[in-house]
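Handover notes (outgoing to incoming on-call)

Open items:
1. Oxidase FUB9: sequence verified, structure written out, both below. Nothing else pending on this one.
2. Nothing else urgent.
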Amino acid sequence: MAAQVKGEKPHDLNCLTIAELEKHAELRMNKQTRDYYNEGADSGSTLRENTTAYGKYRIRPRVLRDISLIDSSVSIWGACNSVPIGVAPTAMQCLAHPDGEIATAKACKEAGIAMGLSSFATSTIEDVASNIDGHPLIFQLYLFEEREHSRKLIQRAKKAGYKAIFLTVDTPMLGRRNMEIRNQFKLPKPYKLANFAEDSGSSASETVMDGSTPKSEQGEEKKSNGTKGYHDGKRRQAPTGPVSFHTHAPNPTLSWERDIGWLKEQCSPEMEVWVKGIATAEDAHLAVHHGVDGIVVSNHGGRQLNGTLATLDALPDVVEAARGKIPVHVDGGIRHGTDVFKALALGADFVWVGRPVLWGLAYKGQEGVELCLRLLSDEFRLCMGLAGTVKVEDITKEYLVKIDKSGFTSRL
Ligand SMILES: Cc1cc2nc3c(=O)[nH]c(=O)nc-3n(C[C@H](O)[C@H](O)[C@H](O)COP(=O)(O)O)c2cc1C
Ligand SMILES: CC(C)CC(=O)C(=O)O
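Oxidase FUB9 structure tokens:
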């Protein structure tokens, strides 16, 4: 908000917007990390459109409504979330700051905001849970072809009190990220894929994107196709050996019939099962049919299939298909509180934010993530008030208008 209210944290005068946060982060990350975090697949058009899609809508503010008491909170997994925003699961946060996911968890606790932890985190499931101290945590699952690895993760998440498993479904293959390949991306020592350390002596720091063979895998990689981790169209063998993300994250065998029932059995009754990476009404219907508890409309931050719809553009169809049956969340391109408002007005129940949190982490660790969450939350509350809404349920499509390139507007 514009004026500082007593008891509120002072503004960081060097960083008043997420755009400024991005610039600060850019200066603090090395090239490998910056490219890995910020890149999209192929030309990056979907990455860009995720953000620009928000510009296709304008807000229709209502006035004279006494907005002196604004409640921006929502209830999620039995807890009060201060705003309908969560921190999306993103891999390897220790690249941004040595405190990595632990700093993010502490910031989420401080802000009263739910957090998603990636299967490929650099902190353990248990450490993150103990640092968020009861506030909702969800675990993002890559369901590996070697299910035993995934089964162990699920059991650990359940024991540590995670509320839901978010199964990522948009990675049957890895999207093509050219800078990642060119930089021969690898997780530097001493960092590890913390949740596989005991299984495999975690070899993340040997994961190389140049087609060369990591030392630990020599001998079993004779068939390397020159772009390790990418698919050459030939039938590949299920990966064995140490878990590394380029080898294990993609799972071309994933299917509704085989995997969702199994996953529900593993999670039930303590944890919900959600699917992350839905982009069509057809798949939303299937998600309902297979009994999942919720959907995240996502294109993986434009990192998987380039050329898909921006998530905001895909959202209305999915909302229509799932209406009244299961909740619909969305992520991708959210960079301002007004974006959150627009996504909610188009029918999302909640949004998740990825890269801005990584930028906060790179800027100032926990304090930077707190700043990121505070900027988005303050902007969202300001937007609610200036649009004439006092409760999150008030935010409906009546508050939006679509504007085309010539400036013509149409009501929704
Ligand atoms: C560096 C990075 C790593 C990510 N790692 C994961 C991951 O491990 N699992 C996953 O499901 N999604 C992952 N995502 C996707 C995010 O969960 C989320 O869908 C995306 O970041 C949202 O877009 P935004 O960054 O524009 O907010 C990652 C995204 C980024 C940028
Ligand atoms: C395991 C990787 C594929 C992490 C990820 O989801 C990403 O980099 O987008």
